[in-house]
Structures are given as structure tokens and as C-alpha cells.
């Protein structure tokens, strides 16, 4: 008997806007000073929503978005804001308690 394993992809499980927002919020809480985690989370959400539509909504190229949001790219803050806006998401600031 052969067991086939498939790499787990969070993008396949983000079905609703609320799930996407909660996922980003959890990543923001866990990231500490790791900006790559936030960028990858945005990439996961973008793939769940559809990268082609996101490219249209942001005015950025689809391939450029894949690269920028892969965790290996280095997107500008302006790109992050365009992506957040197009996805209907916002960043929130709060006070961290020791």
C-alpha cells in the first residue's frame, strides 16, 4: 500500500474574508520582528483570493506579486499597502504588554 502525501497549503483553507483576516492577525501576533512571515501571510491570502484579480486590483504584474509575496522578495511598503487595500484588509496598531 502506497501512501501519497500532499504538501499542506494554507491558501486552500482560507475560504472567507473573516478567516483571511484572522490568519493575518495571528501572523502579526506571532511574527515579532520577522517581516517575512507577514509578507508570506499576505501571499497566502492573495493566492486564496486569486492572484490574477489582485494584479488587476493593484495595477501590479501577477508575476511581480508572486515574487514580492513569496517571502523571498522584498516588497516596498507601498506595495504592501496596495495589496492590503485590494484584499480589503487593514493593519491595526496596539500596545504590547510585557
From TrEMBL:
SUPFAM superfamilies to which the protein is assigned, alphabetical: lambda repressor-like DNA-binding domains
Highest taxon above the source species: Bacteria
One function term, GO molecular function aspect: DNA binding
PANTHER family assigned to the protein according to its UniProt record, in alphabetical order: SSL7038 PROTEIN
NCBIfam families according to UniProt: dnstrm_HI1420
Official protein name in the record: Addiction module antidote protein
Species in which this protein is naturally found: Noviherbaspirillum pedocola
Amino acid at each position: 500500500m502506497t501512501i501519497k502525501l500532499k504538501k499542506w497549503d494554507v491558501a486552500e483553507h482560507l475560504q472567507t474574508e473573516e478567516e483571511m483576516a484572522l490568519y493575518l492577525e495571528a501572523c502579526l501576533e506571532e511574527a515579532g520582528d520577522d517581516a517575512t512571515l507577514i509578507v508570506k501571510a499576505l501571499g497566502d491570502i492573495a493566492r486564496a483570493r486569486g492572484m490574477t484579480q489582485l494584479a488587476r486590483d493593484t495595477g501590479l504584474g501577477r508575476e511581480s506579486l508572486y515574487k514580492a509575496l513569496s517571502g523571498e522578495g522584498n516588497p516596498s511598503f507601498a506595495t504592501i499597502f496596495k495589496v492590503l487595500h485590494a484584499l480589503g484588509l487593514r493593519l491595526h496598531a496596539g500596545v504590547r504588554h510585557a
